[in-house]
Amino acid sequence: MPALFRAAEALLVAALLTVATACGSRLPEGAFETSRAPGESAREPVRVGVITSATSPVGGAAFDGPGQGARAYFDALNARGGLDGRRVEVITCDDGGSGAGNNECVHRLVEEEKVFALVATTVLDYAAAPRVSRAGVPDIGGQPIGPAYDTYPHLYGIYGSQAPRTGDEPGWDGVLYGGTEVYRWFKHAEGARTAAVVSYNQASSAAYARLVTRGLEAEGYRVVSEQLDFALPNFRAVAADIGRSGADLVFDALDAHGNAQLCEAMDEVGTRVTAKVTNVQNWNSAVPRDYKDAPGCRNALWVTGSSRNYEDTGHPAVREFRQAVRGKELSQWQLEGWAAAMWFTDAAKSCAGDLTRACVERYLNRPEPYTARGLLLPVSYRPLEEPPSSRRACLSVARWQDGRGWVTQGGEMNRNCYDVPQIPYRPR
């Protein structure tokens, strides 16, 4: 299972920023009844689909990073001769961030284009997830912006899952679990003891803030709760309160724009903290632009995740990724999309020329965890009947420094590990 509430973080973003939802057009159930992939002749390309919410209400490139990384990987693979001599043909679809658009993308890619698999799915509303599952189409390395990857068989999110995934409810009877390793790390590595948690007076934001508070309290932190009016937020007053509280850390349940405004306010009132902790969605090279008016807070930005820092160019797999995406703004989500495409490719190669969906899924469900040549913390899909009460969990940590970018903290991520409790939460 990923770090505490990582899926809940993404659910928060979706809840805060979705301006409208809609029900998708229903397709006949029989349209998805197929057990083998079409077009398995060696003379034909292997077709994969990439669905993103590139034009979602969240904004331009918010969800496009994983798809960019996956396409870069397949371009490099094709330049080397493809997959066992077969070119990988990538077919993309922008669902616009709506359930209706997601249904349309799945209909086009699965029914009309007859893709073999989906790779690096990154969507605001995965309304068609049950249809992908019923079709038996492997969805490999998607971002868990919602509970789909902890609910349905044939769906494999980039962070793995130990949930039963029966298709009925997420996790164990609608409950997911996550560890407190992020909070443990800051306590041990930075001596943090007090944390401020900032949210809006909005249901999803407040609910996520309560989850963060529970995790922090389980690790013995003193927690200072701050709430902003969603319609007329007074960031300056909250920033001043954080300063008076003596908080070492700031966690938030805000959107990206709110994060930047909070940072600006903290600089304006002179509030300094050890770490303003953000998430993997903000782990990118656009920090100087996004936080241009908050140099102090900007250099206190820290991020945690489950993949190797894209700035770690001493690692050969990172260098290969950087070479392929050279000239573009970089993000951790791009690297994870690259890793998702690698995961699909390694699974397909395991079939030794007899490519079937069943063979690919045997690789995905194998006992050995997958690491994408060291780009990911070990990922597995081995279901447990009962959720664990504790678990050894590792994490990747980086800090922003002007002139250097994201600088890895804590050493090798595979040894940056703790035995931590697993905290239950309901994703919906």
TrEMBL record:
Superkingdom of the source species: Bacteria
Keyword presence, 4Fe-4S: no
Leucine-binding protein domain: residues covered: 45-370
Keywords associated with the record: Signal
Residues passing through the membrane, by range: none
InterPro entries: Leu-bd (IPR028081), Peripla_BP_I (IPR028082)
Residues making up the signal peptide according to the UniProt record: 1-22
Signal recorded as keyword: yes
Family designation: Belongs to the leucine-binding protein family.
Protein name, as recorded: Leucine-binding protein domain-containing protein
Lineage: Bacteria, Bacillati, Actinomycetota, Actinomycetes, Kitasatosporales
